[in-house]
Every structure is written in structure tokens, then in C-alpha cells.
Amino acid sequence: MVKICCIGAGYVGGPTMAVIALKCPEIEVVVVDISEPRISGWNSDRLPIYEPGLDDVVKQCRGRNLFFSTEVHRHVGEADIVFVSVNTPTKTCGLGAGKAADLTYWESAARMIADVSRSDKKKIVVEKSTVPVKTAEAIEKILTHNSRGVKYQILSNPEFLAEGTAVRDLFSPDRVLIGGRETPEGREAVNALRNVYAHWVPEDRIIATNLWSAELSKLAANAFLAQRISSVNAVSALCEATGADVTEVAHSVGRDARIGPRFLSASVGFGGSCFQKDILNLVYICECYGLPEVAGYWREVIRINDYQKSRFVNRVVSSMFNTVAGKKIAVLGFAFKKDTGDTRETPAIDVCRGLLGDKAVVSIYDPQVTEEQVHRDLAMKQFDWDHPRHLQPLISPSDLANRVAVVHDAYEAAREAHAVCILTEWDDFRNLDYQRMFDAMHKPAFVFDGRNVVDPAKLREIGFVVYAIGKPLDNWLKDMPAVA
Ligand SMILES: NC(=O)c1ccc[n+]([C@@H]2O[C@H](COP(=O)([O-])OP(=O)(O)OC[C@H]3O[C@@H](n4cnc5c(N)ncnc54)[C@H](O)[C@@H]3O)[C@@H](O)[C@H]2O)c1
Ligand SMILES: O=c1ccn([C@@H]2O[C@H](COP(=O)(O)OP(=O)(O)O[C@H]3O[C@H](CO)[C@@H](O)[C@H](O)[C@H]3O)[C@@H](O)[C@H]2O)c(=O)[nH]1
After folding, report:
1. Which residues catalyse the reaction (predicted)?
2. Using CA atoms, how far apart are residues 318 and 322, in angstroms rounded to an integer?
3. Which pTM was predicted?
4. Among all residues, which ones are annotated catalytic?
5. Residue 433 CB neighbours (<10 A)
6. How high is the ipTM of this complex?
7. Under CATH, which architecture does the 3-201 domain have?
8. How many C-beta atoms surround the C-beta of residue 302 within 10 A?
9. Residues within the annotated binding site for NAD(+)?
10. Which CATH fold topology does 244-478 show?
């Protein structure tokens, strides 16, 4: 029986391995992690991550050919194929701080693989984490310099799933990318991994490339996706200035088959653990290779994203007579997108910090994010690479307790509030009883829709002053221009 072990039971390792186990019943799959709570979560009825459809997949194969364990060494030692799916965050200090990928977790995982693999069999090590180009070479060096007779092949097999649709993406991926060495042993390893995916992915969707193309394709794909969002967000600012409607513009642009309709929704800004981190990583790599113009091109994608968040905060403050001091603001949605509880790099953190910096009192409701998580996020120090200063106020724990409430429904958040800010596009927010909210709010009552989920005309009929990203402005807002 082929044995697969995945190091890292996170948003990628957990769902990816669960789907492999489901589709390949004859393969034993063990997901290991150093985090005891994470592993007990995976072994319980309440999985550590919220992902539609995942419970069902895990229930079908857990205990059959899918296992979650903290016995990292044993399972890595026994495996034929080891996936490495550990975090690769942005470095916060030292060389490349604020840009380069921090490969500490990666390197320790690689060294551990070398330490615990002792037989003379072949072992395939698969990069699942998103890593800088040429990381495979570094890993290869660590493994071969410490090998105890084991013959290693390194593959790059980046993951393209998006959170909230992970199971669907894994069941039916646009492509599976496998990079390997262009040697007979390398090709053999590529084929071994191809055979795993071929259980359910059509052959023509499995792409084999050299190692560096696979590593770079992942960073490039995320940069292209984020660039589309920054493009439409840049257009949204122009729409507000001219009276055009960004939804109409995006629809017309996206109907061109060469452009396509997806990833053209204007928003308060993109978030998530990947886009910013991976673009920064790309920027750093370009700088290291002496390509400052290319680095500058991609850096602008992040600058526009920061501008969009800062523009949103300024709209809120300027519309409300240039001060939100002491005013209660209801924040609907804290996760970085709908259908996930993940808050990593969510634009809600920057927006809430901006509002708190202007002395607002915020009341937050998100169906999947806990109070503990919100408090941790708002208190956390972020690396301040080029973030506008006013979005980086330091929030003391007492300030947090006094001025941030996390509540259990949208109506509670809006009660006696001056404004509602919609920061995540949860479906439920489309169908709230906005009349009920209006009746319970101070007047004038404002809605700032950072995700274009509400119908501004309907809300204006109720009596709200409405701002929606990239939509024609109310006269009220025209009279109170916001400078980003
Ligand atoms: N989140 C996504 O949607 C997504 C999608 C595609 C690619 N990626 C990439 O995949 C990688 C993992 O992302 P994630 O979101 O799953 O991260 P995560 O933080 O959810 O999970 C990583 C896990 O690795 C564990 N870990 C770290 N070092 C370890 C070690 N030495 N031994 C055992 N376990 C260890 C951590 O405890 C953690 O549970 C990153 O490189 C990310 O960029 C993420
Ligand atoms: O038209 C759009 C589409 C997305 N977003 C925002 O962009 C962010 C990222 O969304 P999405 O890409 O759907 O989620 P992720 O889980 O971050 O997935 C991205 O990052 C993953 C990690 O690398 C990749 O695997 C995926 O292919 C890639 O889509 C979120 O804040 C979204 O709200 C917009 O503002 N407008």
C-alpha cells in the first residue's frame, strides 16, 4: 500500500489530503501537525476549519484510510510520498523583512524529513506550500546533504484551491501542476504523483513542467488574480468620480472573451493569507534578480489594495461630518470572504483599525468569526510595509475591550449605531431587514457597502445615506469628498 504523509494540517493540508483519501481508497493518507489542538480538531466532530462540504468528505474516510496525528516523525519516516504544506508567511524581521517568504517552518520540516527517513528506499517530497522560485533546490540540498541512503526526488505541486470553495476546487480543479527534475528519476516521480491525481482528475488537466516553472506559476497566478481585483478597484474610484457604475463597467469589460467575467468584483480590497504575501514574495524575488521595474509593477497591485481600504475608511469618516469619535459603527462581516471563518489579512482588520484610530466604537458581527479571534486580530502587530500610517494605530487592550464589541447578530450590531459597514459578502447580508435596522439606528443613518451586496436604491427609499463601492454617489457624499 502506498503511504502518503502530509506535514501541516491547515487550510491546504487538511482538505487536500481528505480528498486524496476519498478518491484513492487504496492509499493510506496521514496528516501530521505539531499543533495538538489542530489535530484533535481534525479527529473530532468540529473540524478546525470551516469549509462547505468538508465534514462529509472527512467523515467518509477518517479512520478508513485517512488519519490525523501528532506522531510526525513516525509517519514521515514510513511514507513513500511526503507532502509539505506548512506555513510560509512573510518575514517580519531581518533580511527581506516585509517582503520575503519566511521559510523557517519549511526548512525545519525538510530537516526533520532527513532526520527520520532511514531506509534505502526512494522518497518523494512534494512542495505543496507556496514557496519562492528555486526553493526546491534548497530543499534538495538539505535532504541530499543529510541523506541516510534515502534517494529523494523533489516535486513542486502548488495548490490552487480557494477558501470557501476548497472541496469543489479539489474535486474539479482547473489544473493540477506538477514540476519535477527533467531526469529519468524526476520523470518517474512526476508520474507517481500524476497517478495519484489521475484517480479523479482528467489527464489533460494534469500539467507537468520543470520545477522552476511550477514554483513560479503559483506566484504568477496569484499575482494575476490580485491584479484583476486591483484593476477593477482602481476603476471603482474613477466610477465614483464620474457617475459610472463599476458593476456595469465590469460586466461590459468581462463580456470580452479575452478578459472573462471572473475576479472583477470591486470590493473594499482583497484579503486572505495568500495574495499579499505571494505578491510581496514575487516583488522580493524580482528585486533579488535585479529587476526593479518588474518588482515595481507588482508592488502597485498592493498599493492600490491599500488605497482602496484607506479610501473606504475616509469615505466613512468624511461622510459622517469628518468625525466618528464616540459613534457606534456596526461592522457586518470580518472574515476575508464569505463561507470561511478565516480572518488572515482580512480588509476588515485595516478598516476597523482605521475607524478605531478615529475613535469610533465598533460592533462586529460575523457568522463564523469568534470574539477571541477578532480581538487577537485587532491587537496583533502587522508588518507595516507601506501601509498608510492612519491605518496602523496601536490599539491597547483596554481600548479594545471598551471600544470593540463582537455580537451574535446583525440587528444587535446595528442597534443605536450611526452607520453600518458591510465588509464581507455573506449571502445573509443581502436579505437582512434593513428597515428594522434603520428604525433602531441614530439618524442620519448610513450604510457603507464594501462588497456591493445591498441594493442602494432600496436602502435610500428606507432613508439611509448609502455609499457602495464604485456606484454613483448620493448628493450627501458628493458634498463631502474623501481624499485617500
Ligand atoms: N490557505 C489557502 O487557501 C492556500 C491555498 C493554496 C496554497 N496555500 C499555501 O499553502 C501553505 C499552507 O497554507 P495553510 O493556509 O494551510 O496554512 P496553515 O497555517 O493553515 O497550516 C499550516 C500548518 O503547518 C503546521 N506546521 C508548521 N510547521 C510544521 C512542522 N515543522 N511540522 C508539522 N507541522 C507544521 C502548522 O502548525 C499549521 O497547522 C502556505 O504556503 C500557503 O501559502 C494556501
Ligand atoms: O472579484 C473578486 C474576487 C475576490 N475578491 C477578494 O479577493 C480575496 C481572495 O479571494 P479568493 O481568491 O477567492 O480566495 P483565496 O482563498 O485567497 O484564494 C486565492 O489564494 C489561494 C492561495 O494561494 C489560491 O490557491 C487561490 O487560487 C486564489 O484564488 C478575498 O478577500 C475576496 O473577497 C475581490 O475583492 N473581488
Report:
1. 274
2. 4
3. 0.95
4. 274
5. 10
6. 0.98
7. 3-Layer(aba) Sandwich (3.40)
8. 22
9. 8-13, 33, 38, 86-90, 129-130, 163, 274-277, 344
10. Rossmann fold (3.40.50)
Task: Give the residue extent of every domain in the chain.
Answer: 3-201, 244-478
Give residue 343 CA to ligand 2 midpoint distance, Å.
13
Which of ligand 2's atoms lies nearest the C-alpha of 158? Answer: 25
How confident is the prediction along the chain (484 residues), in pLDDT tens digits per residue?
Answer: 899 999 999 999 999 999 999 999 999 999 999 999 999 999 999 999 999 999 999 999 999 999 999 999 999 999 999 999 999 988 888 999 989 998 999 999 999 999 999 776 789 999 999 999 999 999 999 998 888 889 999 999 999 999 999 999 999 999 999 999 999 999 999 999 999 999 999 999 999 999 999 999 999 999 999 999 999 999 999 999 999 999 999 999 999 999 999 999 999 999 999 999 999 999 999 999 999 999 999 999 999 999 999 999 999 999 999 999 999 999 999 999 999 999 999 999 999 999 999 999 999 999 999 999 999 899 876 644 334 444 445 567 777 788 999 999 999 999 999 999 999 999 999 999 999 999 999 999 999 999 999 999 999 999 999 999 999 999 888 877 666 5
CB 349 within 8 A of CB 343: yes
Which atom of ligand 1 is closest in space to residue 49's alpha carbon?
Answer: 20
Residue of 16, 265, 270, 345 to test ligand 2 pocket, by largest number of atoms within 8 Å of CB: 270
Q: Could you check whether 3-201 and 244-478 share the same CATH topology?
A: yes
